[in-house]
Fold:
Amino acid sequence: MKTEDLIADLASRATPVRPLPAPSVRALAWLAVACASGVAGVLLFGTRPDLDSLVTRQDFLLTSALALATAGLSAAAALVLAVPGAERSALVRGIPLAVLGMWTLTAFMTVLQASHGLSGVSDWYVCAIRVAAIGLVPAIVLVSMLRRAAPLRREWTGALALAGAASVGTLAIQFICPVDDAGHALLGHLGPVLALAAAGGAAATRLLIPNPRT
Structure:
């Protein structure tokens, strides 16, 4: 087949392609889903009994702020990375990682300051499962969004995506879990975020195979 005939044949079978919205617009749409999932998780598992006094505690507010920032910044960064050429600076990846690092450092320091460390920590796996369950829908939606684009840095994109989705579960669990132990919070609340971020980076090659359907 001649080149011009091949071009004509391909052009005749081409279907209209709708451009994706800007990453910022997609991030806002994802945040709406994430908020709904978080609220649904809190309603499903119930709030802790001392919630009224808890919202004035500095440690609760700090952890909640770090979880919220990690969720929003990580998801936004993943959506930017999914568009080739959209990442203008490494800060797009660096900022959410810095926030996650600050959260991790704060959690470890709190454990070190505790008299017992990680000894005697119990039932942390219950919260870990709940964190993953609450973050499941945000993770599925975000991965679906990323597959409709063309992520080139798949490992970074996958790690940030699952870190953001899991952080939604951790933010919700802050309002659910009645345990104030530092070791419990490290293993059951932050642990799933770090584990799923690592899993997202490791499985990104298969997880983020582009799906151009709109």
